[in-house]
Amino acid sequence: MPQNRCTPDLHNVTRTLIGKAQGLDQDLNISTPVLTAYLESPEAPTPTKGCCEASGAFINLYCMCSPAMVQEFNEFMDWQQLMAIIAYLQRRCADINRPIPELFAPPDNCPEYPI
After folding, report:
1. pTM of structure
2. Closest to 97 in 3D by CA, of 60, 36, 48
């Protein structure tokens, strides 16, 4: 799972925004507009190579398209915040030569029968 390789990156973001390190398995207590604005700002840190590689593999294997994964994510985090994080990774992973070329995620870009 990419969150294991991305945990240090997420901790840096949450420490900056709310003063303490938190993972995706916790309520971030950050509004989606605040999170998105930060991730789109020049102050947002560049993600690590490991996080980009793991996230790219997860997305490119259609994991975000799996109904079971969507349900699991919806149980512990806001879907719009997850999409903001993925958009940030798509944009910034290219900066370190680990691009995530296409987002396979609902509702518009999933195969009929994902894994």
Report:
1. 0.79
2. 48
